From TrEMBL, chains A, B, C, D:
It is an enzyme of class 1 (oxidoreductase). This is methylmalonate-semialdehyde dehydrogenase (CoA acylating). InterPro entries: Ald_DH/histidinol_DH (IPR016161), Ald_DH_C (IPR016163), Ald_DH_CS_CYS (IPR016160), Ald_DH_N (IPR016162), Aldehyde_DH_dom (IPR015590), MeMal-semiAld_DH (IPR010061). It holds the Pfam family Aldedh. GO terms for molecular function: methylmalonate-semialdehyde dehydrogenase (acylating, NAD) activity.
Amino acid sequence: MTALVGHLINGEVRSDAARTQDVFNPATGAATRQVALAGKDTVEEAIAAAEAAFPAWRNTPPLKRARIMFRFKELLEQHSEEICRMIGEEHGKISHDAAGELQRGIENVEYACGAPQLLKGEHSKNVGPDIDSWSEFQPLGVVAGITPFNFPAMVPLWMYPMALVCGNCFVLKPSERDPSSVLFIAQLLQEAGLPDGVLNVVNGDKEAVDTLLTDERIKAVSFVGSTPIAEYIYSTANAHGKRCQALGGAKNHAIIMPDADMDNAVNQLLGAAFGSSGERCMALSVAVAVGDQAADALIEKMQTAMQGLKVGAYSDSSNDFGPVITGAHRDKVNGYITSAVEQGATLVVDGRNPEVAGHEDGFFVGGTLIDRVTPEMTSYQEEIFGPVLQVVRVNSMQEAMALIDDHEYGNGTCIFTRDGEAARYFSDNIQVGMVGINVPLPVPVAYHSFGGWKRSLFGDLHAYGPDAVRFYTKRKTITQRWPSAGVREGASFAFPS
Amino acid sequence: MTALVGHLINGEVRSDAARTQDVFNPATGAATRQVALAGKDTVEEAIAAAEAAFPAWRNTPPLKRARIMFRFKELLEQHSEEICRMIGEEHGKISHDAAGELQRGIENVEYACGAPQLLKGEHSKNVGPDIDSWSEFQPLGVVAGITPFNFPAMVPLWMYPMALVCGNCFVLKPSERDPSSVLFIAQLLQEAGLPDGVLNVVNGDKEAVDTLLTDERIKAVSFVGSTPIAEYIYSTANAHGKRCQALGGAKNHAIIMPDADMDNAVNQLLGAAFGSSGERCMALSVAVAVGDQAADALIEKMQTAMQGLKVGAYSDSSNDFGPVITGAHRDKVNGYITSAVEQGATLVVDGRNPEVAGHEDGFFVGGTLIDRVTPEMTSYQEEIFGPVLQVVRVNSMQEAMALIDDHEYGNGTCIFTRDGEAARYFSDNIQVGMVGINVPLPVPVAYHSFGGWKRSLFGDLHAYGPDAVRFYTKRKTITQRWPSAGVREGASFAFPS
Amino acid sequence: MTALVGHLINGEVRSDAARTQDVFNPATGAATRQVALAGKDTVEEAIAAAEAAFPAWRNTPPLKRARIMFRFKELLEQHSEEICRMIGEEHGKISHDAAGELQRGIENVEYACGAPQLLKGEHSKNVGPDIDSWSEFQPLGVVAGITPFNFPAMVPLWMYPMALVCGNCFVLKPSERDPSSVLFIAQLLQEAGLPDGVLNVVNGDKEAVDTLLTDERIKAVSFVGSTPIAEYIYSTANAHGKRCQALGGAKNHAIIMPDADMDNAVNQLLGAAFGSSGERCMALSVAVAVGDQAADALIEKMQTAMQGLKVGAYSDSSNDFGPVITGAHRDKVNGYITSAVEQGATLVVDGRNPEVAGHEDGFFVGGTLIDRVTPEMTSYQEEIFGPVLQVVRVNSMQEAMALIDDHEYGNGTCIFTRDGEAARYFSDNIQVGMVGINVPLPVPVAYHSFGGWKRSLFGDLHAYGPDAVRFYTKRKTITQRWPSAGVREGASFAFPS
Amino acid sequence: MTALVGHLINGEVRSDAARTQDVFNPATGAATRQVALAGKDTVEEAIAAAEAAFPAWRNTPPLKRARIMFRFKELLEQHSEEICRMIGEEHGKISHDAAGELQRGIENVEYACGAPQLLKGEHSKNVGPDIDSWSEFQPLGVVAGITPFNFPAMVPLWMYPMALVCGNCFVLKPSERDPSSVLFIAQLLQEAGLPDGVLNVVNGDKEAVDTLLTDERIKAVSFVGSTPIAEYIYSTANAHGKRCQALGGAKNHAIIMPDADMDNAVNQLLGAAFGSSGERCMALSVAVAVGDQAADALIEKMQTAMQGLKVGAYSDSSNDFGPVITGAHRDKVNGYITSAVEQGATLVVDGRNPEVAGHEDGFFVGGTLIDRVTPEMTSYQEEIFGPVLQVVRVNSMQEAMALIDDHEYGNGTCIFTRDGEAARYFSDNIQVGMVGINVPLPVPVAYHSFGGWKRSLFGDLHAYGPDAVRFYTKRKTITQRWPSAGVREGASFAFPS
């Protein structure tokens, strides 16, 4: 008997009985729960609840809005084990990895606690004689978020804490693959004191998404997912008069320079390539070795290091990573590995069909290392989203950078070097939005903003951090002059007696 | 024999002989020049020139880019009479009005001179142990601007000075109605030291526009014009992967409160409603009087004041305003006046078919005042873009604000009052992007940003000012850690000698 | 048998047995505790502990420092009743007033939670070709705070939360009159995870103060107290090479304009003049009525309203305010009242020697209202620091403003009016640092900064808020160029083999 | 017959006939002009002129103040040759060096042109329900600058452009050694449109300085000079209630790491050590070589490079540097060289008593290189302010850093390395305010701020750049609530007609 994961609308947990879908434990392959799929009506109810809550929430001082986030942070920390367990059960990531994800989410809540500072406008005295002008950053109204399965706790927390402290109300449509932690976290925010209707969660599929994209009461949409969907979301939202930021896919390269500290590089790559089974848009999936000497050293050290990798269920914290999200996705990842071999690459470590004792029906792929990958290969061109590290060999840093710049995506990248000049040249010129120097997962901290370039992001403004304030508010500029000195000079002394 | 106004491509003035169009003097009705209309090939040449200039311009230090703007400002001031004459000849606005426009444009050049300050990124030490992170705001590449006839000098200067100092190259497609000053000003920027190809100007029509909107080398488009075109520009640019900000139409209301300083209000309205023949997106075209006492006083004082209005050719600086841009537009404005009367409004001052001695064929409309206008009338719902002030009578401030909020547009608005509380309530709650308190044309100064709400602006970011920096750059976030202390601790003392 | 309040040094509560002083309950007049008075040696131990803790604390990422403040906030909220009781027992303020004070202190802790955002430096790419420059705001080292009796919880929290998150270590010398809550709160911060030695508290008198002012390991001193002491602190600290901000006395005037909402004004003045027995540097102690009509109305309504004032012990929350801090101070306040009468003022409500049943030995002064006060009177020129509101009558706003500008102090001021122009003129021109418009206690919120002008503050930078970041850090500017492209271009491929 | 250099007071050039002093051409040793020395009365006249100009200047919109700076920049550029000649004649620096100085000064004028942006305050909506709060940065009033001989054009331009655009009036007391360019430049600013009295220049000596330091109308003092005088200025100004920033001496070290690009380092050091005869507070006067291999290479390459150095008069632009400022100073520099030799150092290149054909009476010292200098030597401990580079040999980077940190001064420093980690460790930990990485003169650009640490600067805020805004303004925080909705809700419809 499986439980049903419902919606949060106007402060109440609700279910839309009409349609449901199975939620799986990817480590066992078994359906363990069901999730309600909201129809158009249910989504519209959520929007209506948000719209009704807006006038009072908009007028709540930013400091009071922020204080709810302070309390929210406390509750997230108190309930972290419970949240990580839910993530593990439905997403499959190991508890330490889920804890890391949650911590990154909490960072965004912490940043949102600074709302009073972040919402300051600019005030100009005397733009003309006795004329003042200032800007205010006012909330948009009701805004929506559509989030992916791979970070069920973190990505929603990139969005609604900042949207809410800016004075907006929110409708969240999370992934239907791992909905439990999302709903639980939203309830914690209610418990922290958020008024009913300010945050609503609707589970669903395309029907729910399209309702959000076309309803005129929704003023903005934030999305994280794959590039084709991101493009659809962006164009549809724009066509319906909404502002939109849609984050898509990635193919993140690390350049290994000949002067790199190789032990450090290998150590960093291990986590960056295989952590969370590579199901991260910032996963480091391509290593570009400059010179065969560096490439050979990298392959040798990597191969050795990968012998220690442990794949298994979320509940055993000695595991390094868990299964991928579905059986279909496992097959797709395996297919990329096979295609690379067929297209001429060298399979150094083969992670297909690993043995995971006691979890024979789980959706596992082991850590995989492929050498001599070339840009023409399918596995190079597309995002694999699995625990696969591919190595491309080049003869110069320029060649390595050209590879990266020619790729469709421009999310993250990294260089391993000791040399100040190489690092500066790379970070200056590379056509990628998030750049690491000896940092393989250069995810910006919550007080900076997250965003890729090229087809990794559609929109002007990046996610979370300073850009989130601008995305979730509209600028109002006020110009003021007081023309009469009557009261001051006494003309109206006989004013209302 | 009329002159031909050409293009500026890669530092040279050029003509596209294939197609041309007449340019009129609206005060006489005579065609005085022709303008070349660029075909797709010519536009693509301009784009190619910009793209070729980009790498060197991008690497030019912001301070050096800014210094060209300092010199540009000097040249604009030196040549202001010449520029105002060109504007007068083709647009028709009186020289003092053109001078005001130019001054507002120069303000934006002055703001662009502050590029080194404006382009600073945020630097965070120790985002983790010995890890630093910072943001850089890098240029987009080649960007485009499409600008309207009503401010031939100012609106282009809202765009390219900021775009250029941010490191972008630019292709400008100005209005084909009054192209001369645009080309002249662009040449001054060349003279100021701008490298060839960094700014290009192409005159043209829909073919030129569509080439800019679809060419993949163009990374962003700024537009100012009417709402239907703005919407087309925005959706087309977005569909072709560009960021876009498109500013459209307006219907700007002033609320006249019972406690207003009425003489001041009337004096302000005069210029705000009739200046530049009302052909301004910030023109104050609707006065909403709260209470009949205020309305009667307003009508009476306005009627008296309007007797002094003088309409005529640009060259006589004692004129208050000039003709509208074309004969067709004159007929359209007259039609709105007629329709208002037909739909029940009271025509207090009728400006149709004014006598302007010696300019019988000019496209003139005189100052017009219409009382008892209601929201159902065509003349209320649409943007007239002529020297017509309509008065709507309401019974309360709430009713006045509801009128404004219900209108399709949300560009500018104003309240006349002496009361701090009324001003604060109004500016807080009104759904309009630019708000004046006793300031009828609340155009933000160049160091704030310009933008309406609702269907007056498509896009996230406003024009010029601080938002322009964010619009014309993409954020790059760099995270850096140096893993090895080898050199510092002496391991590599035996460095290559 | 009374308890002894000791010091907190290097994480441990300690007592300096050599000298002690009584701590009184001002509502009963009885000594209830003793406080240890630190000698030079003890203070130096505290400084040494802070200096030893500095290197590790300085290198702790700002985010981690901020997280201790998040936890500190939770603990302050959990223990608020206990803290308010301690304040009540030793300072005498009523529990609701102590709760307000604590809340204001917590606001500063909340602001300090934003340290990662607040500590961002400015980064400039290409200040010259391939040269970058950025600023860092580094901690000063060991800094000190010296705080007054009137806000035992709040004023220390103005200082050390911001000082600590900026990376400094701290030695606090609180008032010896009401030391218990200070020590208790400091221990909560230890409990929140602050490493030993980062915050130290030493109780003491002039010996302790002078040690802090002259020890060269102390890099900065923040002080709040009276003007003569502030001036001494400032000059002594500066002479010993420290940066210093020293906040002194005040005489805060409210202008009552003829158009003011008089009921609102009276209501506001009541709390602002008598709250906390007037022992606030922001207390509103002078009302300047413009015109006799306003003055008469003010006196009449004020007299009526004051009949409801209730004075008594902290523990009865129906009381409006409590005793003053000492018997000597009570006598001094009474003396000011007497002197005003003797010098010709009209005593409207006499608060000297009120009957407070059951607290006959308490240090009570009742709410006092004096009319027709003039600038020559002693009670006008000096800070009374008691529950005394004096009314000065003037004939114009200009006269009212001249009074304020001529006074030695320039801490806070306020105007009561409905008129936008009067408010703007007043706030623009008045020579006072904190200005209220219909706000009688214009204490800036924690995300702005607190500071008076003229002899109310010695130093460049104000307390807390944005200025605190600049006060508690020193700017370092780094300029960087990497001269050799050796590694990038492959010259050193044969680097470490 | 020599000319007399006078004062600029209230827009007029004036002389104080009572006392004068000779001004020398240091390349010839001849007195060429005289400078008037202002007595107390004259200085007080200047202060009075500034005070009289203040009310109108304070109310001039920042944009208009900035526009005078735009025009000032133009005039400085037009007259640059004339200015450089004046500098050359009186200071002795070669024309290319004077041009560089002037350019740096102009950078500060350019930064001041951004005043409207820089003066923006922070605006917070709803700090409480319907309560807003914002900050304004208001001018101080009349402020003073006291500047040194070594940068007669640049250092005054660090000060008054920013002070003026912030709304202050200014009294400048420049060096009496080279006063001509200062007066000339100030007159250009008058010509640019500055109202009379806003900037005043008084030449003088201690009497003038002390008048400025003690007159209560002066609200702030900026000083650049030697440390003992800086300390006197700072304490005296503070004791008289002024804010003060006083920049003093320096001893700037460069660390030469074993992995440095040695040719680049030598090339950089040449200009940094000997440019302007070493009479710069940012001169690089100590090279700390890490390891004897680096030291030997440095000495050898440096010795070779120094053979090409050319010393002579300002007018021959092929000269590298000119004379020092006076004969007495020449003797002092020579004395330091002699003392180093006597105390055991190795004199590699001896610049004492160089032959400069045709300028036998000029105050010349040639480029001097001293090896094996140790911290105990007088020449190491004190600031030489001459063309002398001393080399200290150490065994590790830690040792090099300890040297720097132990020195009394902390103005500038530099490291030569290719290694990212070494650069980051150095810039993070070194106790110096301005740090170069492969940049030997890390003078911050005008849009950052200039300031040393330790005994190189007295005061909280650095010179020019962002800190200058804070130094030259006082913060005012306004909190506003409008209590009555009377007008809005119609209570006062019957307003005074």
